[in-house]
Amino acid sequence: MFYREAGQFRTSYAQDSQIFPLRQDRIGIAIILIAAVLLPFVANAYWLSAILIPWLVLSLVALGQNILMGYAGQLSLGSAGFMAVGAFACYNLILRVEGIPFVVAVALSGVCAALVGIVFGLPSLRIRGLYLAVATLASQFFIVWALDKFPWFKNYDPAGVITAQPIIMFGHNFASPREKYWVVLAIVAVLALLAKNMARGSVGRGWMAVRDMDVAAEAMGLSLLRTKLQAFAISSFYCGVGGALFAFAYLQTVEPSAFTIELSFRILFMVIIGGLGTIMGSFLGAGFILLMPIFLNVFFHGVFGQSVDAGVISAVEQVIFGVMIITFLIYEPLGLARVWQLTKERLRLWPFKH
Amino acid sequence: MSSKNILRRGLSGVAAAGAIMAAAIVSTPTMAQQPEQYFPVASMRVGPYNAMGTGIFGGVIDYLNYVNIKHGGVNGVKLVYEECETEYNAARSVECYQRLLNRGDQKMLLWDPYGTPLAYAVIGRVAADNVVLAQAGYGRTDAADGRVWPWVFGATANYWSQIAMKLNFIQQKEGGIDKMKGKTIVHLHIDTAYGREPLPAMRQIAKDWGVNLIEIPIAPPGLEQQSQWLQIRQAKADWVTFWGAGAGMSGTAITSAARVGFPRNKIIFVTFGGAEEDMIAGGAQAKDTHVVAMVLPGKQFPLIADIEKVLYSGGAGKGNMQNPARVGTIYYNRGVIAAVNYVEALRNAQRIHNKVGKPVTGAEFRDGYEALDYTSEARRKELGIDGMIPPYKLTCRNHEGAGTFHMMQWDGNKFQIVSKDWLGANDPKFIRQLIEDSAEKYAKENNITLRDCPN
Questions:
Q1: What class has domain B36-157+297-383?
Q2: Where would I find the Leucine-binding protein domain in this sequence (chain B) (predicted)?
Q3: Is B407 helix (H, G, I), strand (E, B) or coil?
Q4: What is residue B79's predicted lDDT score, i.e. its pLDDT?
Q5: Which of A93, B61, B252, B382 is the most exposed place for a label (fewest CB within 10 A)?
Q6: Whole-model pTM above 0.90?
């Protein structure tokens, strides 16, 4: 009833090519953005620092993984490795460059991760699919190993767990969860907008052409070398920025063991559950994989309290989480983004059946 | 039935269940006649370290319940707890820390995640949140300097003291420090912050004694150690200080050592990966392995026997351990002692701040923790823990405590204590100096002014 496009005419090319052609969508996104900015005034420190910040950061990383896997079709397993590059690059930049603003350091860490990503993307020119996944797995192990092996990266800290420096920009220390949230929100919003525009522009069409059939794409005049490496670079950039934010805004420590293969797999699941080749799906998938175990933990402890053995509860949570993933993939293999799309289609007819 | 229908039905079912649960929670009567003090329990009951997690946190919870049942709480203040599963994952533990930080109108007093990486993950937050970081024998070593880290406590020891104690034990076995020259010691460790923690002290001592130190890391979870043990055999190592965690890793170490023929009595396990569960995982080949103990195992201590009587005997069913036979094991006793520290600190805080019978705040609790004192034999006997821990007290400057351990040997069924008395570093002053130097360096780099400490 409310979600209808009747009466909205596009009379110029600019109107036709905007991100949200529907007025309702524009209003909706504006409300979400305003709500996101104002949220810290109502949310407490737990919600900000333990839920929202990691969710936004991991959404950004999932977005990076989605660019590579969902749009460009290059199956990769090294996203946590690139996050580690970003985190350590950020630490070393702030440590070694006097007075560098945090945003600049984060952007440069993304660039470092992109360079590493290009190197590890080279095998994609010769191998595809699962074989490429195995090849990128090497990057995961190599990066974490290298960070442990060469103490220079950790500034010769004996324990190898470094306390992240404070987030300082424009002479201000962004110390409280609220300020950290705003920093993360701003960076994620800008990068998500960029990703959306890349995905629907010529860059994204190039990726999708390579994904759907690379031989045909090459015959049409696309350079495979350029397109694939571009996807690797941009994806790694997103992962690197995400890694820096994960370490500085969330964990507040920098250590290689935070970026294990397990995290890479979780990011992969976020993208698959969220929906391959969608921007929205990265956010939804990250929310599901990150928040569902927390929700289950809170829920079961709240319901059963201390009457049931906590070991059993913890095991049951993991079983339920696994069953939910399997069930969901059976009934909606296209991911949460597809559910959202179907909901929108139904909303157009609502409250009528046809 | 179409998939949409299933989804919709499923959703309505979930919603209905949720509504019932919510109603159940709301309708629970709120009884608040007795004052309460809330403790967080950051447990790890699943994952590779579950043997440790269930034992230690079972011990913690049992002692809190025991104090409630036996003594009606601490001066009438009931002890309550809230649990959160960290899975020994730093990111999950930060979420748990934030989640448990506030419960109703009470803030948590302390954080005790039982994992060095997990302690590191919050060490920068505790001072601002007024939370005591109780890293009993684990965590960041130089935090034993109370001038730099007022909120962090290591009672009863830390990893530098532990490695120094191991080396002290080795030199006693070898017949003196002058006999150590040219000996080869391998530090075989899990490649995490925890495994690397003892290295600074170990390197110093090895250099001073002329010991050939070889560091060999194992990637977590450490279930594959074949190449490392071959390397140890090639290096003709005299001793191995094994710094692992989890029964899987410990068992693998023992079976791999047996395969290359390395004598088990030349391996010294670390406190955190050295419990009955770890030895049993190694099977018959685990016989003669040395293990360091921070808290002695066994039910011969009156406190453990009484906890078993009150919570478990006759099917009382009030205990937290799923397997009551584990009461009195290494991990369980360590958990009980951790909780004894909480409760003693709470008692001290109530006394110091004139709040007997009332809940205390984080800052008051911190003062109470700093006042922990087990030097009186009468007090240890009263608590029923005499002989279980070394006598020690904490001071403003010294947040480590005893720094001493016992050496045990596995006889195939249980641990036998082989050290005569609590054993510490050969030169404890040297270790203390290392700690204070490291802490002062940290303070200088981070512009922390040292707290003024009389002692």
A1: alpha beta
A2: 45-412
A3: strand
A4: 92
A5: B382
A6: no
